[in-house]
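Fold it.
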Amino acid sequence: MPDLDDLSIATATRWWLRALAAGLALLVLALILGLVGWLAGWWFKAQNTERQAQVNESSYGRQESLRTEVGKNIGVVFDITSQIQLAPDDTARQVLSAQRLNTVSMVCRDAAKIDDKSSLDPEQLDFIDMNCVGAAVAQTSEYRP
């Protein structure tokens, strides 16, 4: 720091203004770096959460529950088909048909999430092959209205 006795008031003022400007610039830089770091932290957290969700989706327990749900819901589809045949009127048949289509849709969504389809029963595989395209109900499905 220069000797203040030798400086004029104007020189001292300029020196303090430069020091203040440099301090403010450092403060702004620190705030920007802090904000960037904070945003990067949230981005990394989102990436880790997505990766963990993928790991959980592929876990043995999740896959087993999906296979169980597929089997259960295929049985529900057959039960609803029996109810449709016994329905007293067209309104009841339409409501049951919509419910059945929704259940077939759940089967297709769950089946699409199963990693190893060979672990399903042959009857379940046949049902999925005839009625599902990916995670959606096939246009050629007999359960479409």
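The first strand starts at residue 132 and ends at 133.
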